């Protein structure tokens, strides 16, 4: 058979080349970036943390895939790759989570996992992802230990750890001239509660050296009944009662402690309580000092990005976003920029876990809650600004509002890169900058 | 002295709540020989139903005091509708099978009911705190207690006496005791064993549901409320002896007082206190405090 020659052959070669290019282009356009989203879809943490966070992820996914987010987040999907989320329930304990994480990487073939509210879960899954050399972003859990006790290459946390919340609370009390000769504490008996009470007690030692610690209650997670603990707190009421309770536990504690007068006998301070305000409404006592683990919700800063996010979430769910969806959105915004940076360095192709890690390590980006900087843990742990406020029920608006809001720059309430939180607090916060 | 009084009051109020829930668990085991892992789910169902009924009562402008009636109706509705459906529709097919299989079946029920409650009521919390204020406050020393907590003590006492009376002093109770002793002999004497099983299961579920309904005003009713209660209820019935009403009462008191003493004197040992008491009881009475050693039937 004779080979075609002349113009005829040239056309055929051109047609074949065009077909090949078109095919390659189609593959690239259809390629997806798959993310496993792990949070509590059932159990006690679902209502306050898991479901609001997943709801945040859902509206953001839609906005990303339409290219509807504001610049610099306005490219469709991740750098043109359509984004796909796989949702997994975090309920069931740390052992189950390790297995689920492996399933996400091995069976679902996700490119990254963003997840985990529970500090115990984070401590369990981080080594598993590291061992598998897979990319993992912890978006919510608060225990400082993850990056202080381990050197990790593939694991990141895009929110500040819990030390920030308790340092900020102690600083707020001092800045507002609250008299503190004694303080009681009630925290859940697991990693988050244990770390929170230590951070607060150490901070008080430095900021209020004369204040004496009193009751140190450690109910189990999900206890639900706090009558006995409230009696113990009331038996020796302190000037301050500190707590890092959250979710259903926090709601039950407030509902049970309110009628017994704890909020009148002691100034109660909560480190992570903004999420119960919309539900409790007028059942939330006035004058409670609280944080949100960041400048979130009612304490979020004014910015175009925050306005867009507030509007997007509010229209979809008919309520304002609290801390959990805020942390989810800041995580996904950071991941998007890192993925796009890694793609650019990889010739426009989907990045490997190593390339993703290199792009996110030490990076910074704008979020609705302010600037997020991966400044600690070798560039794997974020710091951010935070805010503390005081509750007041506004009968006109039929909602709890926050007064006396005070903002704390990230460098004021987070340790520097070369220090662990414990050592930093015990040394009297060396290098803290910009404190009000 | 004041500290001792506080420990006793806290222990008693906690024990009352625990007794109401654990009594249903021990009753179901005593009659049907089912270790019902889903008992906590019926407790949660009672709490959700109470939230709905109390909300409905408020919308119908019922007097605030009648919210207690709404809570009772909620528990009755759970016992009258869900219990027979579960027992007739599922559990009866497993009677006489290995007890481990029944544990697995009720565990499956627990998982299913977790999702069903979420499908019906959603993930958002329900608040029904109005009944919590009905009984005012009681000042004892430096403590202010909510009167509702003492109402729970009274409710637990009434329920305990009523169940004991019903079992030991009525004809129906004698029939139930006959079925517990030997379903085969009771059946041959003309007792409708299936009906006894369904009735006992419904009463057990009513007790779980009334426990949940009574707890609803003190908490935010939301997914996950079923988990905590079931574990500590098991500790109570194991200490008291599975299937024993007196055992559930004494077990609840022991757990309540041990926990209360730990919270006041050594908070770090709160959880430990419950299970160390259980371990000590089991060391000397492996069958529980009020369970007689039974000869195995061949």
Structure write-up:
- The complex is a heterodimer of chains A (436) and B (298).
- Chain A has helices spanning 6-30, 46-66, 94-106, 119-132, 145-148, 163-175, 191-207, 227-235, 247-257, 262-265, 277-280, 304-317, 323-345, 353-360, 410-413, 421-426; strands at 32-39, 82-89, 112-115, 136-138, 155-157, 182-186, 212-217, 240-243, 267-270, 289-291, 364-367, 370-376, 381-383, 386-394, 399-408.
- With 436 residues, chain A is of the alpha/beta class.
- Chain A folds into two domains: 31-161 and 301-383, Response regulator (Rossmann fold, 3-Layer(aba) Sandwich); 163-299 and 385-426, Rossmann fold.
- In chain A, strands 7-6-8-9-10-14-15 form a seven-stranded mixed β-sheet.
- Chain B has one domain: Orthogonal Bundle (ABC transporter involved in vitamin B12 uptake, BtuC), CATH 1.10.3470.
- In chain B, strands 1-4 form a two-stranded antiparallel ribbon. A two-stranded antiparallel ribbon of chain B has the order 2-3.
- In chain B, helix 1 packs antiparallel against helix 8 (193-215), helix 2 crosses helix 3 and helix 3 (67-89) packs antiparallel against helix 8.
- Chain B is globular and about 60 Å long.
- The chains are: A alpha/beta (436), B mainly alpha (298).
Count of domain modules of chain A: 2
CATH superfamily of the largest domain in chain A: Response regulator
Question: Might you state the CATH topology name of chain B?
Answer: ABC transporter involved in vitamin B12 uptake, BtuC
The CATH class name of chain B reads Mainly Alpha
Radius of gyration of chain A: 24 Å
Strand content of chain B: under 5%
Count of DSSP H/I helices of chain B: 11
């Amino acid at each position: 058979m004779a080979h075609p020659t002349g113009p005829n052959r040239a056309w055929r070669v051109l047609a074949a080349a065009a077909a090949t290019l078109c095919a390659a282009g189609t593959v690239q356009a259809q390629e997806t970036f798959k993310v496993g989203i792990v949070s509590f879809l059932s159990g006690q943490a679902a209502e306050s943390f898991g479901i609001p966070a997943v709801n945040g992820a859902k509206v953001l996914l839609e906005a990303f895939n339409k290219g509807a987010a504001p610049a610099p987040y306005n490219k469709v999907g991740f750098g043109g790759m359509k984004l796909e989320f796989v949702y997994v329930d975090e309920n069931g304990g740390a052992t189950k989570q390790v297995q689920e994480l492996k399933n996400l990487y091995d069976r679902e073939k996700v490119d990254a996992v963003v997840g985990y509210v529970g500090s115990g879960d984070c401590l369990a899954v981080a080594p598993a992802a590291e061992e598998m050399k897979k990319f993992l972003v912890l978006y919510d859990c608060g225990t400082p230990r993850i990056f202080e006790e381990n050197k990790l290459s593939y694991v990141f946390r895009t929110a500040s750890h819990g030390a920030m919340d308790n340092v900020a609370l102690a600083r707020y009390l001092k800045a507002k001239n609250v008299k503190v000769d004694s303080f009681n504490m009630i925290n859940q008996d697991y990693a988050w509660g244990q770390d929170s009470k230590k951070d607060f007690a150490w901070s008080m030692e430095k900021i209020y050296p004369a204040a004496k610690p009193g009751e140190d209650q450690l109910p189990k997670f999900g206890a639900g009944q706090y009558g006995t603990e409230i009696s113990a707190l009331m038996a020796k009421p302190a000037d301050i009662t500190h707590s890092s309770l959250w979710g259903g536990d926090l709601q039950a504690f407030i509902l049970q402690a309110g009628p017994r007068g704890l909020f009148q006998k002691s100034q109660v301070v909560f480190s992570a309580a903004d999420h119960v305000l919309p539900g409790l409404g007028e059942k939330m006592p006035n004058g409670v000092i609280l944080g949100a683990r960041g400048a979130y919700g009612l304490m979020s800063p004014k910015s175009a990005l925050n306005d867009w996010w507030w509007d997007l979430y509010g229209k979809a769910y008919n309520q304002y976003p609290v801390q959990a969806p805020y942390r989810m959105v800041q995580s996904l915004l950071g991941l998007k920029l890192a993925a796009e940076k890694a793609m650019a360095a990889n010739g426009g192709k989907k990045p490997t876990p190593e390339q993703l890690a290199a792009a996110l390590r030490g990076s910074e980006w704008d979020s609705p809650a302010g600037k997020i900087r991966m400044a600690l843990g070798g560039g794997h742990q974020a710091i951010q600004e935070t805010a503390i406020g005081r509750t007041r029920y506004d009968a006109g608006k039929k909602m709890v509002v926050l007064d006396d809001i005070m903002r704390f720059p990230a460098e004021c309430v987070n340790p520097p890169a070369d220090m662990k939180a414990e050592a930093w607090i015990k040394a009297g916060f060396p290098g803290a900058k910009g404190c009000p | 002295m004041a500290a001792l009084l506080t420990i006793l009051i806290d222990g008693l109020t906690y024990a009352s709540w625990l007794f109401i829930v654990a009594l249903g668990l021990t009753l179901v085991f005593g009659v049907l020989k089912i270790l019902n892992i889903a008992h906590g789910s019926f407790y949660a169902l009672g709490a959700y139903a109470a939230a709905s009924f109390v909300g409905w009562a408020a919308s119908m402008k019922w007097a605030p005091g009648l919210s207690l009636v709404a809570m009772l109706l909620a528990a009755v509705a759970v016992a009258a509708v869900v219990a027979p459906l579960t027992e007739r529709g599922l559990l009866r097919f497993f009677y006489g099978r290995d007890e481990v299989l029944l544990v697995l079946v009720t565990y499956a029920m627990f998982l299913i009911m977790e999702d069903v409650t979420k499908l019906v009521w959603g993930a958002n919390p329900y608040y029904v705190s109005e009944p919590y204020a009905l009984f005012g406050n009681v000042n004892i020393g430096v403590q202010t207690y909510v009167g509702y907590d003492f109402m729970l003590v009274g409710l637990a006492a009434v329920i305990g006496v009523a169940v004991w009376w019903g079992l030991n002093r009525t004809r129906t109770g004698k029939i139930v005791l006959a079925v517990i002793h030997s379903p085969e002999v009771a059946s041959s004497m003309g007792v409708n064993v299936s009906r006894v099983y369904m009735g006992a299961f419904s009463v057990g579920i009513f007790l779980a549901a009334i426990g949940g309904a009574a707890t609803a005003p003190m908490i935010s009713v939301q997914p996950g409320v079923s988990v905590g209660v079931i574990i500590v209820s098991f500790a109570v019935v194991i200490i008291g002896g599975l299937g024993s009403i007196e055992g559930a009462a004494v077990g609840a008191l022991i757990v309540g007082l041990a926990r209360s003493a730990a919270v006041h004197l050594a908070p770090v040992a709160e959880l430990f206190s419950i299970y160390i008491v259980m371990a000590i009881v089991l060391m000397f009475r492996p069958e529980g405090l009020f369970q007689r050693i039974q000869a195995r039937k061949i």
